[in-house]
């Protein structure tokens, strides 16, 4: 197919050039042949006149009309000569051949289809008259037409032969080129630098390819054998080595720092968001620009004239560029399409997605606004753009159209559903086409990647290489890979030790010092399984009533998307359920459920993680869940038990947690009871193993692997461009 397309590239110009040539040439050739034939006729007439001169003069002298006619008739028998006549000097017709056309006269009148030549006949300087020789010209047009047809046929034949020859050369050239390239790559990937001499036409590419393959091999070995090397410094040096001088732009809906108007002035708040938790360390390391929605009440007064503000406020390391959204835009794009449509669509939590055309319109418009901001912030035509999450499914293609050379990496922080579930979205094709504007598209797990590839396969006309995990769409390639997200491993100088945290938190909550505490930390979202968690607590207390007064669940839930009905009713349901459990298992020591619907700061959360005996993560569906990893990272005493839903991405990594099905309330209750009674030795064994994994597979590794892949794809793109330009030159030489 490819060689055929290549041939078409020169067949069309060839047809055009030959056609134009024929168009110009044919009238010229017509004129030329006609002129040749006429000249030929005139020459014949002159010759005939010279031949007739002597006998004709004799017969004029004898005035023998009969002999003259016989002479003329003999001369016209086997030529194109139509008639011969003799006129006297006064223009009177004296003699003529038997055939004599009616319109022909001695005064110069010539009927159409004849060419007449008059030759004066002189004797001793006296003009005796004029010999008229009339020849037919009809055959000239016939022959010119014939000649033109031959010429056209020759042009056509030339076109067919050149095209066939060209296609054949292109086909074999392409085959040979591909074959040699394959051999070269195979040979080089097998034994770097050990290969024999490359064919001369590949020599310009060999060193590039070798360098590329060498780096890839080294990289693979580094990743396989030394995962613990991922630190902020390593990430920084990776950015420096691999993307030296390249600009990094992050796009997300949520901003990493929100300026709010407080009672005593402006305060800075960090949002409760897994995405911000994960991406912030990357930006600190690479000093790029983060483009996000300015949602805080004091955001506008803290930016400069270009809507930029340096962050983090205490020690600025990168730039935050804020994009302003109207209430309508925010309602349609964020609350509407993103959170009432895509969020439930991608999470199997039995909440039905709502799709409205007006929301979709705002989603398209806001994606375009952010894409414009990316283009405006880009200093070069090939920045590295890191797009975050489901709010910007259309943005990658919009940016790709304006900056075709950009390396666009998108991470989809939530699960990707199966093709049937995704298929209910009325704009599924548009969303998929938007996502295929990415150079690299990342999900948390291989399962989400597989779902995505199958969805693309179902709804778009693409070429998918499952082995290589790539999608080819509209001539562009998107690499789809799993990158399990993680957290930054805490600094060793964490302020309070576990014993002090336990004491402090129990005092704050008015609990006895040895009171057992389970912890839930979430955004207040129906996917987090908070209701199911409370039901498991209730069931555990039903089964083990002796635990009432010795155990409580501290549920910290950050208000989220509270303007949506679904979230309001969830909050009401959680509050009601907590109150009813507290009533049912009321005791003089402590309520079984301590519900805090509020945002905690970093230190408060760290204290909770370190003070808890058990952490409950019971999501009904979750891309990864960073709370599970934060809990593990906080436990430098190597104690504490993690109960983890099997429907989180984290469950694929943290096998030593107590894995449960959150829908199965009994199972949750049993796991909770088991966790509360787990011996310290077992806790330590489990926690140690999980800590080592989370420390090694931290957020720097997540970002590092993605950026390494991006750098690899960038190099590949450059090599591909070289190969293309090289093959274009080779083809040009061949044809
Ligand atoms: P989220 O749905 O926001 O993230 P999660 O991964 O658990 O879910 O991250 C929540 C973050 O918010 C954590 O860093 C946590 O500490 C913080 N947080 C939660 N409750 C809080 C509270 N009350 N006060 C303060 N902070 C609080 C999405 C996907 C996840 C994916 C992440 C990262 O839904 O599946 O793991 O992105 O990709």
Please tell me about this protein's structure.
It is a single chain. The protein is an alpha/beta fold and 735 residues long. Helix content is 52%, strand content 16%. It has 21 helices and 22 strands. The strands form four sheets. A ten-stranded mixed sheet has the order 9-10-8-5-11-12-13-16-15-14, sandwiched between helices. Helix 16 (565-584) links the parallel strand 18 and strand 19. The longest helix has 61 residues, at 2-62. It is rod-shaped, with a radius of gyration of 45 Å. It binds adenosine-5'-diphosphate-glucose. Adenosine-5'-diphosphate-glucose (ADQ) is lined by residues 272-275, 277-278, 413-414, 485, 521-523, 556-558, 599-600, 605, 622-627, 630.
Beta-strand content: 15-25%
Helix content: 40-55%
Number of helices: 21
Structural class: alpha/beta
Largest sheet strand order? 9-10-8-5-11-12-13-16-15-14
**Small-molecule binders:** adenosine-5'-diphosphate-glucose
**What does the overall shape look like?**
rod-shaped
N-to-C terminal Cα separation, in Å? Answer: 19 Å
Reported for the largest beta sheet, the result is: 10 strands, mixed
What would the average pLDDT be, to the nearest integer?
Answer: 89
Computed CA radius of gyration, to the nearest angstrom: 45 Å
Task: Report the count of strand segments.
Answer: 22
